[in-house]
Amino acid sequence: MKFRDEYRDSRAAQVLARAIARTVTRPWTLMEVCGGQTHAIVRFGIDRLLPPEITLVHGPGCPVCVTPVEYVDRAITIAEYPDVILCSYGDMLRVPGSHGDLLAAKSRGADVRAVYSPLDALSLARANPQREVVFFAVGFETTAPANAMAAYQARQDGLANFSMLVSHVLVPPAMRSILDAPDSRIQAFLAAGHVCTVMGYEEYLPIAAHYRVPIVVTGFEPLDILEGVYRCVRQLENGQAEVENPYSRVVRRSGNPTALRIMKEVFRVIPRRWRGIGDIADSGLGLAPAYAAFDAERRFGAVTVDTEPTGECISGLVLKGLCKPTDCPAFGTRCTPDRPLGVTMVSSEGACAAYYRYRGKPARPS
Question: Same domain, yes or no, for 123 and 183?
């Protein structure tokens, strides 16, 4: 594949790594806000190419990981109603709630199905008019347009047996929350390229200016990430704090106008609780009043916010960029993808899953 190989050229990667090493004169801490970028960094050993002055930390970039416990609990409750088909993406079925996950509900007889698209859930609603079909809609701005289109199409078609349990989150408010934290050590961001494909990057301009942090829109291949790191370091060394977009082959400043229009029609901005992080103002999307008829919370009862369960899992600290997966004493021993203690090991985009898959189990003490 020409274009993939073009951005995985090892010699070009070494050139960028040397340029970063020549530029850096002091320690800097950068955060990538995307689980896909985290996996690329660990898979290709990008962090190991960088000089010791550069620290990459992993942010709350896994949409499954930050879905609140109470929404998982509500989805399980809804799934166990008679005549309900509950659908979601595959990763969501394994995310633990307070007492189990959706796959456990399926094993007890609930009709829980993994789908590739919310439009698959619409097809199920059309094919099963006598049953309630509920789509558990999660994710960042990247999945929001398709989920909005599902609600829009349901309204156009008059599908009275379709609804959505919506737990969407937005990236810029999370970045502000991270920077506002008293223990934050983040000095620059690698912005998620696929989010910017939808939203553009204008929302990042006031963040960069207010917090004096460089933000570089970054893709997912090794050269994309190294280029993002280089530009962040160059800005930091020069005392700059600007938004740059080297990912211009995909991202435009204003984003995708068609996607933004359907999102604006179907959704409204609301407060949202993030798993492992807490409440963040104006950081979520809920259905707009015109689409309230398709709101599963209205149809089956609202989500009740409870205290998040605690345990030895440190996934919250990983999501905040305060710890690495290998800092957890349970990593790779009591916590594995087969027997996960927390969401960052469950999800295919989770940082713990990335470290386990590409860096292996921790060495046992001799």
Answer: no
